[in-house]
Write a structure and sequence with these properties.
Length: 375
């Protein structure tokens, strides 16, 4: 018997998620494999309460795939499935701590059961991850089968956010925002890694905050917006990441190609934890770190910023830059206001992540708040 839900967020979002997966997922399966709102609600409810429990002193990290065992590829199945309850989720959570391993959950006529584990899930399968106490993310695997999963909804206590994949501003920087929203990238049709997305994840991972400035290659105007001398200049310019990307057509079959790129991205992400800005070209050549942003004397102080978040119901608004956050946000807004071909990525210590670009149509700095897409 399916238990009544007591977490309000589960009730609020389950209907929208049912509609999403009817439209986007399980299209190759028969109707018996669709996801009723009541089942999604039960899964979210049990996972939320499980997230608040400790098991032997540890807070649980849980990943659940909502998929029937008969369509799973090479699953590990329990002889006797167990009911989906907070208790069983917490007890089984140590088995799915490692990436790409999920508890398999499906429903019968009158119950929802944990039937085993699965590591190879189909495209668009609903995945729920318990990130921390009270923080849940609903996502699905990309149709291409690689890269970060596409986030659909984020629930944090009484806050429920549904990702809006029709968000404004995609044409201003499609190779980052469109990728995070699960859109196809015309500029990277055959590349297995979106470098900007991985850089954003690496910056956020160290939880110390960071500012990354991406400037046009073979140009030096960006130096007019930096205080000199720069604390740490890379000489010669470090092109390890750029070289690997350029070698993709030749090295695409090498097993270590992707892992080498991710290692370098982690290294660069680490430098963003150092006070000041890390500077790279848009070709991913590493130029400097620990740099201080200063207003170009030829330009005025950034007056206002257009702030948006890809969330259903969110309306873009024009705000004073001081409302964006601390000194990193102010520096990023000013830098993009002065250097309009550049882009700035800002990670806050509290997990907020913002991308700053110049909006040519509106002639204003556009701040895209995208942390909901990076969880």
């Amino acid at each position: 018997m399916i238990s009544d839900t007591t977490y309000l967020g589960a009730r609020m979002v389950s209907g929208a998620l049912e509609n999403y997966f009817k439209e986007h997922a399980y299209q190759s399966l028969d109707e018996s494999h669709y996801l009723p709102a009541a089942i999604i609600e039960a899964l979210i409810d049990a996972s939320f309460w499980a997230s608040l429990r400790k098991e032997e002193g540890y807070l649980p990290k849980i990943s659940v795939a909502l998929i029937p065992p008969d369509v799973a590829t090479d699953p590990l199945r329990f002889a006797t499935p167990v009911r989906l309850t907070p208790h069983h989720l917490v007890k089984l959570s140590p088995a799915v701590v490692q990436p790409s391993i999920h508890l398999g959950v499906w429903y019968t006529d009158n119950d929802v059961l944990i039937w085993g584990t699965i590591h190879d899930i189909p495209d668009s399968c609903l995945v729920l991850e318990v990130i921390e106490p009270g923080l849940l993310v609903i996502k699905h695997k990309r149709q291409e089968g690689y890269g970060k999963y596409v986030n659909i909804a984020v629930l944090k206590g009484d806050q429920v956010k549904l990702v809006d994949d029709r968000s404004l501003g995609l044409t201003e920087y499609p190779d980052l925002l469109a990728s995070l929203l699960g859109k196809s990238l015309a500029i990277a049709l055959d590349e297995p890694i979106n470098v900007l997305v991985e850089l954003a994840v690496a910056m956020r991972r160290h939880a110390r905050g960071g500012l990354l400035l991406l400037v046009p290659p073979d140009q030096h105007q960006w130096k007019d917006s930096i205080v000199h001398p720069i604390s740490y200049i890379i000489d010669p310019i470090y092109g390890g990441l750029s070289d690997l990307i350029q070698r993709y057509p030749m090295d695409r079959r090498r097993a270590d190609w992707k892992s080498n790129i991710l290692k370098i991205i982690d290294i660069i992400g680490g430098f963003t934890a150092i006070d000041g800005a890390t500077i790279m070209t848009k070709n991913y050549e590493f130029l400097a770190f620990g740099a201080k942003v200063g207003r170009n004397q030829k330009n005025a102080q950034v007056p206002k910023v257009l702030l948006s978040e890809p969330i259903v119901g969110n309306e873009a608004e024009i705000v004073d830059p001081v409302k964006l956050g601390g000194t990193r946000h102010l520096a990023a807004a000013q830098f993009v206001h002065d250097q309009r071909e550049a882009m700035a990525l800002v990670a806050s210590q509290d997990g907020v992540f913002t991308v700053f670009v110049w909006s040519a149509p509106t002639q204003i700095v556009h701040a895209h708040r995208i942390d909901v897409l990076l969880l």
